[in-house]
Design a protein that fits this description.
Two copies of one chain form a homodimer. The first copy, chain A, contains nine helices and no strands. In chain A, helix 4 runs antiparallel to helix 5. By secondary structure, chain A is an all-alpha fold. Chain A has two domains: 62 residues, Arc Repressor Mutant, subunit A; 159 residues, Tetracycline Repressor, domain 2, CATH 1.10.357. The first copy, chain A, binds a DNA duplex through helix 3.
Chain lengths: 223, 223
DNA sequence: ATTATCTATAGATCTATAGATAATGC
DNA sequence: ATTATCTATAGATCTATAGATAATGC
């Protein structure tokens, strides 16, 4: 029998994914932050969505900022881990190596697919002015490292000599998936098309069919 | 002699650009919304920045939302007007006509330059969840029309058959300037490079030198 | 009479802390 | 003893309105 008085742990079925109360809070916060905005979402509304009291949130998180910090970190950690692994591979052109174009395509596809398929479109929170604070230094550093890895993989690749830097444009095209999704016009193809577009800007449009296959193989190998 | 009591119009030098009190309020709000966030900016802090009392704002704007509405509308109206003018031009290939590639380049360069050089980087507010409300219908409709015009100008242009849609990718690359600027890595070239990248994705990389010149001429002719 | 400002305030929040209560695990 | 919840609340906001005051323009 379940009692409902003070101090009793909740024994109800969680209405949210997540093994722990902490995960339920994160999921509820992600939904509210992305649909109503960070500053407009009160700690009370997060607690209501989880089915606990407002003050109980503070057992799991020190501040409201800390919830956002956790969520943002989660959006970048997977892609960064993959990009690091890819960047550490030998980059030559022999049979066992992966040339830069292939590696860039794999990173873009992996990263873009994550952004498109994540349960909540948390990327819309990346550019909140609040996030520039030192509190979010780790997220910001991770995102910057990811950007740098794109630049490294695309180094020297450009469709026109002295023209747009293919690596950074690929990063930007992948992140534009966030806004495509926010505008409700993302499709199943969007991530693949963004990765392709990045490679075209690297001057590798001719080799795309081969790069696509090799890039997918790389993802399969590393995940 | 200036008196400082109640009811007296301010006779001080305005510390902000703008001929009217309304313009000063808009400028202060733009600064605060972009540097501290919309929901985190109180009407009091806007008023303080202008040098009036909090309640005096409500003489000029019915609500705080109305301030944001005005600001957002201002970021898209110029580019939309230009894109409409360009889209209305004859689109053939004779000497007096402007082919689609040239027109798309001109729109992207004009629009991107505005985003890069505007006094405040208001584009970071485009994807606030708050902005999805019906209150902002006009801004949303204008931005959508602008996106559609990019698609129209890029119709049928793609670097690879069946590949990425060049028009919409150009729109996305131009809007990515907002986030480049927010990240502090925009340069004087950024808008021109975004326009170039859009044309490359349209499969017009070979013709870029000619298109750049024709696009700039088109801007000069229409502005 | 209209415009632009002010003072004062209603009424509704909001975040975070203090301290009580009870279940769990040693 | 530790963990997770609760009630209660301090203290600080926040937006928008009401109504007074004075300058300006007819």
């Amino acid at each position: 029998m379940t009692s409902a008085g003070p101090g009793r742990p909740r024994h109800q079925q969680p209405s949210r994914p997540g093994a722990t109360a902490r995960d339920e809070i994160l999921d509820a916060a992600a939904e509210l932050f992305t649909t109503q905005g960070f500053a407009s979402t009160s700690t009370r509304s997060i607690a209501d969505a989880v089915g606990i009291r407002q003050s109980s949130l503070y057992h799991h998180f020190k501040t409201k900022d800390e919830i956002l910090e956790d969520l943002l970190e989660g959006t970048v950690s997977g892609g960064l881990k993959f990009a690091r692994a890819v960047a550490a591979l030998p980059g030559g052109t022999s049979e066992t190596d992966s040339p830069a174009g292939t590696r860039l395509h794999a990173v873009a596809l992996y990263d873009g697919t994550q952004l498109c398929n994540a349960r909540w479109n948390l990327g819309v929170l990346y550019h909140l002015p609040e996030v520039r604070s030192t509190r979010f230094a780790r997220f910001l550093a991770d995102r910057q490292e990811l950007r740098r890895l794109y630049g490294e993989l695309g180094a020297g690749l450009s469709a026109v000599p002295g023209g747009p830097d293919g690596g950074d444009f690929t990063f930007r095209l992948v992140e534009s998936l966030i806004y495509l999704r926010a505008d409700g016009v993302a499709t199943d193809d969007s991530a693949a098309q963004a990765a392709d577009a990045g490679l075209i800007l690297c001057g590798l449009g001719q080799e795309l069919p081969a790069i696509r296959a090799a890039g997918r193989a790389l993802i399969d190998r590393l995940t």
